[in-house]
Structure formats: structure tokens, C-alpha cells
Amino acid sequence: MTDGDDGGAPPERYPPDVPFRFVLRLPPDPIGPLEGREEEKAAVELHDGRDDVGADAHDAPERGDAPSADQQVLESEPSGVPPPRRGRRSAAQRLVLGVNVVAIVGCLLAAGTLWWTYDRVREIPVVALGAQLFPVADGDDVGADAARNFLIVGTDSAEDDAFDVRADTIMVLRIDPRSERAALLSLPRDLYLPIAGQGGSARINNAIQGGPGALIETISESLGVPVNHYVEIDFAGFEDLVDAVDGVSVFFPEPVRDQQSGLSVPVAGCTVLDPSQALAFVRSRAYEVERDGAWQVDGSGDLGRISRQQDFIRRVLERAIRRGARNPATLRELVEIGFGRLVVDDGLALGDVLAIGDRFRSFEPDNLDLYGLPVYDEVVQGAQVLRLDRVAAQPTLDLFRGDDSTAGAVVVQVLNGTGEPGVAESAAAALTDVGFVVPDGNTGDAANFDYVRTTVLLIAGAEAEAVRVASHLGADPVFERAPSIAGGRVAVIVGADWPGVVEEPRAVAPGLVPGTTTTSTVPPTAAAPPTDADDGDPPPPPTSTTERRGEVPGAPAGATC
Q: 45 - beta bridge partners?
């Protein structure tokens, strides 16, 4: 979309066999029934131009279910003439976050006031995804109480080629209304995976060339992560986001640049990034820092870019809140600003969004947990790609699969490797508190008391279980194979450096666990991800990493920005 677009028909951004529908399911009209507004009941389906534009107003949505009485299906005819370019926004409009934050944090700030924009929401471009999306359900929790995954995609499309679309940024946002927390998983665009419908593997950012459905199926089939909703934003939308908050402040300890993305911060200190520089910052893969009079290349590529993107998202949220994003009047203008920059799936019901927004009304940026995947570099057919360390990735992927029982299925033996009385029993109690099973009699002394490092023993085939145990320790242990373990498949030997037990699982550095076989389970609604043998991934080298990589600017202690 161009800056002059303000809603209307979505551009032809995908191949001709990917239909779009202007469909939005709405709850009962908060400003009155539909009588007298018959034009709003018209239904128009936008194809690739080879078919006649038009549809029966009573046709059910492509997902197959006719709308209920409280879910009217409204579709508006796209205009063939772009609206006139708007002038610069008023000061009040520039104070608000813009609806693009919906694409980044799943309506966490804005959803509570969407009912005010009943006459505007029907203009959001919608893509019909049908069976590619998984139904929102979590045991007995449905609707607003159910945890759900939003696939957030930032697209990079060439202005002179509407079909040359690549996913520049791919994130999975999981929101859990019960805990009022959100988790964001960034997928490197160079991640090498089997691509749905292509019969082979490629970089994941190429999957969207087959339409959003192909990207969704790639994530669900290759990673075992179900996608419940789809939200897409283009570069112009991102710039609107930054413009809506009058720029985003970042403290740069040294001058930085990226000659490929156009980033240029020539002076160290607190800098307010304008829309174009903010876009160059979050897109930067050739990040350079000037130190001692010389430019030093970051060298972390896409992984460094992800680190900076995640840090930037938190900054946007904090700035939006400071500038009034919780104020209902401000939020009303927020929605008006950004709807034309989004594409969403046809199953995103406004009623659910409203209820979620109400639950997240007091959402704080610190409640957004940020995750990355353990990957390692490899050259495939002459191209540099990133391979997934599937064993080390299981605890993180399980969080986004909705597997809340990551600990419960693992039986653990706990042994004292220091000689200090009671340490095995104390460690066993802590592991039990976070859900692991330590049966009576499964504690005792190790073969000796010389263990300086806490050690996790595992038998063949128990690699994923060992990673799960380690993910609940405060620091990475040493992993060792054992021919057998009494009463289980995994044992923890408490060493002198015992790091304690943490409730929330953390990422475990890949390459530490011997073997590459994974036995992790996934929910029945998602396809089981392929093992390393399935997609040809070689064993990860010891140099692979899950740690935050790359240069991430920030203010030093005592400084504010």
C-alpha cells in the first residue's frame, strides 16, 4: 500500500489462486441495528480479476459456517480509485499508537475500544484462509478465555511487482488471557524448513509467495505450532506506527549505520528515530558500530536483527503508553489511523477481540516474553541458511504449542553430588513444585561427591526430556549419557554450582545435549514436526546458539532516553 491508501480493496499481493474476501464478523451493532443500512449488507468477493466481481449477499463465508445472528457478515465493495492523499495528521492523531500495534501485540492495547469504529472495521482487507487456521480452543476454555497464536507477518513487496512478496519479519504472538501475559517468538527469515506445497525445503520467508496459507501450513507442519489467526502489515504500515507515536527514542552508545538498509545515526546518545530511520533500524542486517574511529561490522545478520526488533517492540509499547494509549479518546483515534495498513484472516471475530482487549486493558510491556529459536549456520547448495536445532528448540516450541504440561510427563532421579546433607531432597522438592515427577526412593547419593558442575544424565532417546529438565534449572548444566537410570530416563546430579529451579522454562543452549532425536509430543490439532531425519537436518554443531545475538543499543546505567 502507498501512504495515500486509506483502506479499500487489498492490492493483488499474492498469486491469482489466492482469493481475498472483505469479510469481518461483527457482534451485534453497538450503534443500532442494520435496518435502514441495507448497503452494508452487500457482499462482494475480490478474486484475481479473471472472475466477475460480485457475490450473493447471503453467501456464507468461505470458512463454511453461515454467520449466526450475533455475527453479521459485512462486505464492502472495493473502490477502484484510490482516495486522495491525506495531509499530515493532527497533533492529537500523532499522539496515538496506531492500529498497527495490533499487528505487533495482538490488540493488547487497542482492542477495548474497537466498538467505536463499527463503521470503519468493515474496511479492513481480509484474506480467506479456511482450513489452514486451527480453531481457538484450550480444553474447556473457548472464546476470550482461550490462549491463541497470532501469526504476525511484515511483508516486503517490490513496488513494481505485486507478486514479488516476501515475509521480511515473521513472528508468532501467543496471548493467554488467563495469565494476562503474552509471548513473542521471532522466526529468522533464513530458517531452512520444508515448505508446504513445494515438495522441498527453502528459507521460510519464501513460503508466503504461495499465499499466507502456505506460510501458515509451513509453520504448523514443520514446527508443530498451530496458528489461530493471521495479521499482516507492510512497510508503510510500520512507518505509520512510528509516526503515530512521534518517533521512538533509542540510546546509541556509539554512532551506527547500515549502508544496505539506510540506517544512519552519526552521533552517539539519545536519538528519536523517525519513521524511515526506524524502519532502517529494524531491517538492519549489516549493522555497523563506530568504535575507536573505525567501523566494526556486527556480523550477526538476521539473528542480530531479531534482537533489535524485539527490543524495538518493547520501546514502542512503552512510548505508546506514556503518550496516552490507555486513554479511550486516544484509542478511538488510534483505530481510525491504521486500519488501512492491515490484512487479517476472515475468522478474526471482533467480539473475541473486544473481550481479549478488555482482559488486557492494563497490559504492561514487561509482561511480553521474548523468545528466539536455537539455530546454526549451514551452506545448502551454495546458499547460507539457518538450521533449527530441534532438540534444544522443544521447550520453546512447546510453549507456543499450548503444551502446559512440559514437566509433568518427565520422571526424574535426583542425586547428591556434593556431600552436603539434604541437597538432593531439596532439589527434588523444587523440581516437583514445577511439575516434574520424582517418585519416592528416586533420591540418593551420586557415585562420588566431586561434582563441581550440576549434571543431567540421560539414556538414549531421552534427549528432549533432558532438555525439558534443564530448561527449568537456573543455568545450563553439563549433559552426560548413561547406559541406564534407575526409575526413569533422566537424572539430575546436584553439583557445587547448583543453580536452583525456575518456574518458567528458559532456552537451553543447543549443542550441549548428545544426540539429536526428539520425542517431544505436540497437541493433536497440530501436525507433528519432522525430525532431523525427516528433513535432512544434520546434527547441530557445538557453536549453535540461542543466546541474544548482535549489537542491541541501550542506555548505560544511570542514563535515560
A: 21
